[in-house]
Write a structure and sequence with these properties.
Blueprint lengths: L1 E5 L6 E7 L9 H11 L8 H4 L4 E5 L1 E2 L2 E2 L4 E6 L3 H8 L6 H6 L11 H8 L5 H7 L3 H17 L4 E9 L2 E2 L6 H4 L12 H16 L6 E8 L15 H10 L4 E6 L10 H4 L3 E4 L3 E4 L7 E2 L2 E2 L4 E7 L10 E3 L6 E3 L10 H24 L4 H10 L2
Antiparallel strand pairs: 1-2, 2-6, 3-6, 4-5, 7-8, 7-9, 9-15, 10-15, 11-12, 13-14, 16-17
Helix pairs in contact: 1-7, 5-6, 7-12, 10-12
Bound molecules: flavin mononucleotide (FMN).
């Protein structure tokens, strides 16, 4: 399978093309729209999320609610485009409107400066429009299609926010509890800690500052043997790390015990293996996070990802004006203060994409019936 996304933040639309989905996958579009609504929610989001209510349109590859086996094209129209057409249209922009939207006070922590130098641009808008996390809307839509493919095999993905700006939840949660996170303000499962985190975000907003945070994403029901020990490029942990790290503002990814392995002994970290006729092979612990040797081992997959604080600060950081080379305060367009709730939703989408690809790589299949049959034949 292959996913391509396209689209600028204030352009006409965002597009995703998914190639390689088998025929006869039932697509529930309202579930895609529900995921898009979740991506736009959470305490700490900026004004844009209120302007636009994202909805997906399927342009190709699905007929009467079922995939055909042809490329599936998803589209989200940017409702805000009406206000940006004169400066973002693909032809005949109004020079005054372009000038009004020009950004040269390049923002630290963004792609602005490096992108301008690399692509020979005088206006950071030509970089930031693509660098923006708006792109993740269409990745969430595609991720929901992949999730529906995985769900047909009994594979489920869930997650929650375990940390916001130093307020950390050390609790251990069963997979079923994770669903509750979607009904909270910022995705935390401990209501007291969430209350503190919300207060913290509100305070940061008052101070013109921002927050990041950490999310845990878990996968239940994936059989062993997905990914590969034979080829480093197909290692499942490597692919999951790439999928998560490709999301804007993610600066660290952990699998299972993650960075804690660095200060633990072997006895403390490795999951011993047992066997009974009834259970087959099993482990009593899962510090490996469900992946050994680059392959799923049948246990829950456990991943963590850390998001840096949003780099646009209302009390802008110091920078240089690209045009004048003078010292300046970085530009600040309307912006999120904290987007950790959204990040959890996007992270699940990225994980769904990687896992659907790993399943497809191993099992192939032109129809969902073939995929399901092959999956159930596995030990
Ligand atoms: C869901 C989400 C929302 C974001 N919202 C904003 C925002 O409102 N303002 C901002 O400056 N950065 C925001 N970011 C972060 C930037 O997109 C990101 O830091 C920037 O593109 C640079 O990429 P990098 O951090 O991966 O190096 C957001 C990221 C995510 C995942």
């Amino acid at each position: 399978m292959k996913l391509t996304t396209a689209g600028e933040s204030h352009g006409k639309a965002l597009i995703a093309v998914i190639e390689g989905l088998p025929a006869h996958l039932t697509i529930d579009i309202e579930k895609v729209n529900a995921a898009l609504a979740l991506r736009q929610s959470g305490f700490g989001r900026g004004a844009r999320q209120k302007i636009e209510k994202d909805r997906v349109e399927v342009l190709t590859g699905v007929r009467n609610g079922e995939t055909l086996g042809s490329p599936v094209t998803l589209c989200i129209y940017n409702r805000d485009f009406a206000n940006w057409e004169s400066s973002m249209s693909s032809e005949r922009c109004d020079p005054d409107a372009m000038e009004a939207k020009k950004l040269t006070k390049v923002r630290p922590g963004h792609a602005d400066l490096t992108g301008m130098l690399k692509y020979g641009q005088e206006d950071a808008r030509n970089i930031l429009e693509r660098a923006s996390a708006r792109e993740t809307a269409i990745r969430v839509a595609a991720g929901e299609i992949y999730r529906q493919y995985l769900a047909a095999l009994g594979v489920e993905i869930g997650g929650y926010v375990y940390e916001v700006c130093g307020i950390k939840d050390e609790g251990k949660y069963a997979f079923n509890q994770l669903l509750q996170a979607k009904n909270t303000q910022i995705g935390m499962l401990n209501a007291d800690l969430e209350g503190l985190a919300v207060e913290k975000i509100a305070q940061l907003k008052k101070d013109g500052d921002t927050a990041g945070g950490g999310v845990e994403i878990r996968v239940r029901g994936l059989k062993s043997g997905f990914g590969s020990v034979m080829s480093y490029t197909e290692k499942l942990d490597a692919q999951l790390a790439q999928g998560l790290m490709s999301i804007q503002a993610i600066k660290g990814v952990e699998v299972g015990a993650g960075f804690a392995v660095a200060n633990a002994s072997g006895k403390e970290i490795h999951d011993e293996i047992f066997y009974t006729q009834e259970k087959g092979f099993y482990r009593n612990t899962n510090r490996a996070g469900g992946i050994e040797g680059g392959m799923s081992n049948g246990e829950e997959i456990i991943l963590r990802a850390a998001m840096k604080p949003i780099p646009t600060l209302m009390k802008g950081l110091q920078t240089v004006d690209y045009a004048t080379k003078e010292k300046a305060v970085a530009a600040s367009e309307r912006s999120d203060v904290c987007a950790i709730f959204a990040l959890e939703i996007i992270g699940e989408a990225a994980v769904a994409e990687v896992l659907a690809n790993a399943v497809s790589k191993r099992l192939g299949g032109d129809t969902m019936e073939e995929v399901i049959q092959r999956y159930h034949l596995l030990p």
